[in-house]
Each structure stands twice: as structure tokens, then as C-alpha cells.
Design a protein that fits this description.
2 copies of one chain form a homodimer.
Chain A: H1 30-55, H2 59-70, H3 76-83, H4 87-99, E1 103-107, E2 115-119, H5 121-143, H6 152-163, H7 166-177
Antiparallel strand pairs in A: 1-2
Helix pairs in contact in A: 1-5, 1-6, 2-4, 2-5, 5-6
Chain A binds a DNA duplex (30 and 30 nucleotides) through residues 58-60, 75-77, 85-89, 91-93, 108, 111-115.
DNA sequence: GAGATATGTCAACAAGACTGACGTAAATGG
DNA sequence: CCATTTACGTCAGTCTTGTTGACATATCTC
């Protein structure tokens, strides 16, 4: 994983014609949120990734486990609708989870064609582990003082920024301040 | 792309022992945000994906193009720090973008080892197109009335929900209401 | 000039997505 | 009751995007 610098090098940047600031257009602020959402989501999925790696699972397994845990009795078709992947993709990871006893299938009582999905105790436990680290990050993000005005924009900005690893927030903010035409 | 149902089928669910409601623990609300963040991010990247497909590009190309556009003169090392991928991975997509004239490299003036990255006009135009659809979604999410109490939690919930395709919000909310122990 | 740094590149591999085709079991509608 | 549809499984091949490891080259720094 090699730490987490994010552009903290010897600021050896060039000043070229492309650096001439163009006016920071008003209401262009949601551009910043695009990046923050990228960084926030990256760190958000990074937490569970580390746990999953210990089990030989990936994000695809996580998503399946999560939804089956939270919505016991989900059918294959429903899961496909939620995840928006093909049944072939789903089947590969689902097979892993079933073979290793994290998920079980039960034939539907009303419709015997359906395979209802349930977590085993082991599956529930693993899902809880994964949920824990993500909920922790979210709880922290929500409890962190948003600071400043509470417009919808700054609330979202504060929320997304707080979703990023604390050690990295400064680096992200430094990067974003470097933007062409940034408000400095 | 085949529409976007998300669990709207003939509600043929079973009622089994696993459905016995377990008390919805208080302060467990950030669990909902986990899912909302998943759905929000899925739709958030879905917009640009459709545009990128027309160019034969993927998300990896998008990320490179985005950061080079916003931070002209970025070096390879800086980009690697931001994206957290290996130089081999970066090189593959960067090569595509350079060969097709969306990005150009310029040798650093201070340090001639560095390759400073810049967008061509075509690159800037494409980046603007991609940013536009994402900014549109964000602007809409921020302007949508959050409704109700304005705790940090419900602000985040409102923001994330508003990030989801409007046609699908109801389906997502229906799904989440179905959760085990949901507050009904 | 030696060594570190910035970048490029070859090769092999893995996860996770896709398409297309085909098979089976069960429900459903005439 | 039989034809069709639906729900699911699976085989086979491909693509994108990530990985590791090794090695080359140019440039900077001491």
C-alpha cells in the first residue's frame, strides 16, 4: 500500500502559458465536488479492500455479500438489478461465496425456480466486519464539524472532504488549491 | 443499457425465519449511507461512461484526462500519486490519449527528466463534456430541496439520494425500506 | 563520475466486467 | 396438456484495468 502521499513532491512545477489563470467562473464549484467524490469513494472502498484481501475476496464479493446480508432472501434477478452486472459476472463471485460457506441458496417456496440468497453466520460476521469500517468512516465524517456556512454546497463539500483519510485531506486540499484559476 | 429497474419485480418474496425483525439499533443510520454512496457513485460514473464509450475510452482514460485538464503541467509521478496506480497501468491509457491527440507531453524546463502533461484543445473539450454531465448531476443534487431536519446525517442522506438518477430514487428507497429491521 | 531520480517498456498475470450460445427446471397461459 | 416464457446455470472467449518484476535511458545531484 506504500503510504499515501498525493502530490507532495518538491513542488517543481513549471509556469507556462497554460498556467495563466482563467477567471474562476461562479457556480463552477460543483467541479470541486467531482474530485472530492472521487477521493472520498476511493478511501471509502479502500477500508474494506484490506479486509477482503485477507479472505482472497475482492470488491465484487463485497457488494454481493453486503446486499445479501442486508436483504436476506434476495433473488438472483434482484441482485442483478441492483448490481447492474451480468449473471455470468455475478455467478463467478457468488460461487466463491457459496463454496466457502458465506452464502447459502434456498429454493423459493412460491416459485421453485428462484434461488433465494441468505448469509450464513460466517457471512453475516464478515459483512458486519466490512460494514463496521465503512460505518466508522461515515460516522466520523458526519460528526466532524462542517465549519462555516451551511449551504447545500458546503455541507456536501464538508461531508466529502471528511470522508477522505484524515492524513490526506491536507494533501487533497493542497492539490485542489493548485487548480488553474483556483480562488487561492 | 436496458432501462433501470432495481428490484421492482412482482414482489414475490418469501417470509422466512430470517425475516424476523431485529431491533433497528439507534445510530446505525450510517449503514444506509453506505448503500446510498454505492448507488450515488454508480450513477455518478455512469454518465461519463456513456460518452467515453463513443470514443473507445474507459474510466481510466477519464481519470487521467480529468486531472491533466484541471492541473495542467502535472508530472507522471504526481499523477501516479493521485490515481494510486502503477506506472505501467497509467502508461497504457496515457499512451492512448497521447496517440489520439487529447494530451501532449512537454519536457520539463527545470528538470528535463520530467514529462509535463497538458491537454490539447480536443482534450480540454472532451474533459469539459465529461465534467458537464457530472457537474449537472451535482448541481441538481445540491439544488434539490433537502427536506426535513438538517442534521449532518440527513444532509448527507439527501445529498446522496439526490445524486441517484431521479427515476430510480423511488426504487432505491423501496429497496432500502425492505431492509431487515427497517423502520418501516 | 557515481548514484539517485523520472520515465518508458517488455512480459506475464489476475480480477472483474462483457458477449454469445446453450441447457434445464419450473411456471404460466391458451 | 402442451407451448412458451421465465429463472437460473454454465461454457467459452474477449476486454479493460489493475498487478509484479525486470530492465533501459536520460537527467539531475553530490
Amino acid at each position: 500500500m506504500e503510504g499515501a502521499p498525493i502530490v507532495d513532491r518538491h513542488a517543481t512545477r513549471e509556469v507556462t502559458k497554460a498556467d495563466t489563470p482563467r477567471a474562476a467562473a461562479p457556480a463552477e464549484g460543483s467541479d470541486d465536488l467531482i474530485e472530492l467524490l472521487f477521493f472520498a469513494y476511493r478511501d471509502f472502498v479502500g477500508d474494506p479492500d484490506r479486509i477482503l484481501a485477507q479472505y482472497g475476496f475482492g470488491r465484487a464479493h463485497h457488494r454481493v455479500l453486503h446486499f445479501v446480508d442486508r436483504y436476506p432472501g434476495l433473488t438472483i434477478a434482484e441482485l442483478l438489478d441492483i448490481l447492474r452486472i451480468t449473471k455470468q459476472s455475478l455467478n463467478r463471485v457468488l460461487k466463491d461465496l457459496i463454496e466457502q460457506d458465506y452464502i447459502v441458496q434456498k429454493t423459493g417456496a412460491n416459485d421453485r425456480r428462484q434461488r433465494l440468497l441468505f448469509c450464513t453466520p460466517a457471512g453475516t460476521a464478515l459483512a458486519a466486519d466490512l460494514t463496521r469500517v465503512q460505518a466508522r468512516r461515515l460516522a466520523r465524517a458526519l460528526s466532524d464539524p462542517p465549519e462555516g456556512d451551511s449551504t447545500a454546497y458546503s455541507a456536501a463539500e464538508g461531508f466529502l472532504l471528511a470522508m477522505i483519510d484524515p492524513e490526506e485531506r491536507a494533501a487533497v486540499q493542497r492539490l485542489m488549491a493548485r487548480r488553474v484559476g483556483a480562488v487561492a
